[in-house]
Design brief:
The complex is a heterodimer of chains A (80) and B (136). By secondary structure, chain A is α+β, with helices and mostly antiparallel strands. Chain A is built from two helices and five strands; from the N terminus they run βαβαβββ. In chain A, strand 3 and strand 4 form a beta hairpin. Chain B is an alpha+beta fold and 136 residues long. Classes of the chains: A alpha+beta (80), B alpha+beta (136).
Amino acid sequence: MELTIHLYGITRDIMGSSKKSVQLPEGARVQDLLELIRRDYPSLAELKSLLVAVNEDYAETDVVLTERDEIALIPPVSGG
Amino acid sequence: MIEITDQPIEVQSCIDAVQSERAGAVDVFIGTVRNHNKNKEVVRLEFEAFDTMAVKKMKELADEASRRWPVEKIAIVHRKGVLEIGAIAVVIAVATPHRKDAFDACRWVIDTLKEVVPIWKKEIYENGEEWLEAHP
């Protein structure tokens, strides 16, 4: 399946675009997505944290992803 | 009143939004852009937000604050885009019957906002820039 990943802040800078498409097998979980992008973009490992938001909520690593989900990478937040 | 905006924040409109006859106190936190950070001179800030999720998380903060304290009304407004030194980045206004709860709830909301709401701040210096909190 093809997932569209929305990118913000430093992850957008690192990955060079505000959206990226990634290919993962059906049934893939948040953990699989993180492993894939960390392999393709090793400097993501230097971040203090990297979370995944699925449909506007922070998702645990065992959440199963589908093509209908709105998926975003959330690097360390710094609002306020 | 829970918003992400790319326009200057009007403090009075935030205060007006929490007016309540049951409130004996309104506490207002105003976060502003300062000209230095960790010995570096800051020229301006750029805020970026995942707008829809940020508003959703700010609403959850307002709901949670209302569970923890007797909140009559609450306003949370955060700016995005380019902000010059002295500009207002965030305003939180909390109305409660008594002042202690207004102070406590307002502090909890700004502290928690900084931890969970998907907004990112980039500092621009004379010769460089940096996304804050990104690296250990």
